[in-house]
């Protein structure tokens, strides 16, 4: 499989890991859009959010890990945004489900 995130999970491609669970991996985005920009992914390959949502237990693990990342990164109290881009039209560029955890600055709405 030629998936960048799967290669990060296997250690074939380096990542700045901030948390690792049995079924999840959290690492810093290489092109951060906020002072805190961490991606949380399932270790099991799911191409997008819709596929991940078909496994509610794994989705729950990913979202629980999002909360832990926010705590660890110091943005749980001040506020943070969680984004799943699904499909190229929504800006998904790596087709392995991932949650963006963004914080550490004001985040305008609507996002653009």
From TrEMBL:
Domain HIT stretches: 4-112
Pfam families assigned to the protein according to its UniProt record, in alphabetical order: HIT (PF01230)
InterPro entries xref list: Histidine_triad_HIT, HIT-like, HIT-like_sf
Residue window of motif Histidine triad motif: 96-100
CDD domains registered for this protein in UniProt: PKCI_related
Protein name: Histidine triad nucleotide-binding protein
Organism of origin: Actinocorallia aurantiaca
Lineage: Bacteria, Bacillati, Actinomycetota, Actinomycetes, Streptosporangiales
């Amino acid at each position: 499989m030629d998936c960048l995130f799967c290669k990060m999970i296997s250690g074939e491609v380096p990542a700045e890991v901030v948390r690792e669970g049995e079924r999840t991996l959290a690492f810093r985005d290489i092109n951060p859009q906020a002072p805190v920009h961490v991606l949380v992914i399932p270790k099991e390959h799911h191409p997008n959010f819709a596929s991940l949502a078909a496994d509610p237990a794994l989705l729950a693990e990913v979202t629980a890990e999002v909360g832990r990342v926010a705590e660890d990164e110091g943005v749980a109290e001040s506020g943070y945004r969680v984004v799943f881009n699904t499909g190229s039209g929504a800006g998904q560029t790596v087709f392995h489900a991932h949650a963006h955890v963004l914080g550490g600055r004001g985040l305008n709405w609507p996002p653009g």
